[in-house]
Amino acid sequence: MEPFGLAVHASLEGSGVSGLNVLVSGCGPIGLMNIAAAKALGASKVIATDVHPLRLTAAAKMGADECINATEESVYETVRSLLGERGVDVAIDYSGQATALKELIQSITHGGELRLMGVPSHDILLNLEEWLFKGLIVRGLHGRRLFETWERSTSLLVTGRVDLSSLVSHRLPLTAAEDAFEMALNGQSLKILFEPNGSCI
């Protein structure tokens, strides 16, 4: 619920996602949750981008209409081929990567929204002129809104409009913690659950 709340908050903020074309950059667990939340909340089309094939496969399962491997193709050119010159209405970034942000800016329509969720690991150079002349609305998001986000998240899960069970790629004992973190860092897992007392299912 805690990480899902972030995804729901990112989907509801600003102009929301209903009837809009949405680009989700970074398909870690919360980005994947955002794909499912955006679809459930009425997004017209959801496009996902990442560099790990496992995550992109998961993005398709979570409801993404198009999945782009950013190491193999241009995000901007692919978005343009799908939506024309207009581009997406909303881009939500979970990657915190400079190259990803650059392509997101190119892919957003004039007056569209950029919602920042990912935290960069270092300073990033920004072309503010491009942001300015596009008239972008930029929202830095952190956490969620209490209690609105919990209520909407609960409703999406209880009604079955969102199913998060496929995000759990591994269930491991605590003794395998080192291997688990290695898998996570190398993009070989989605969400790993530790089961200190053995299997829960």
From TrEMBL:
Keywords, ordered alphabetically: Oxidoreductase
SUPFAM superfamilies in the cross-refs: NAD(P)-binding Rossmann-fold domains
Domain Alcohol dehydrogenase-like C-terminal, residue spans: 29-157
Database matches in Pfam families: ADH_zinc_N
GO MF term list: oxidoreductase activity
Secretion signal span: none
Coiled-coil ranges from the UniProt annotation: none
Transmembrane segments: none
Keyword Oxidoreductase: yes
Top-level taxon of origin: Bacteria
Protein name: Benzyl alcohol dehydrogenase
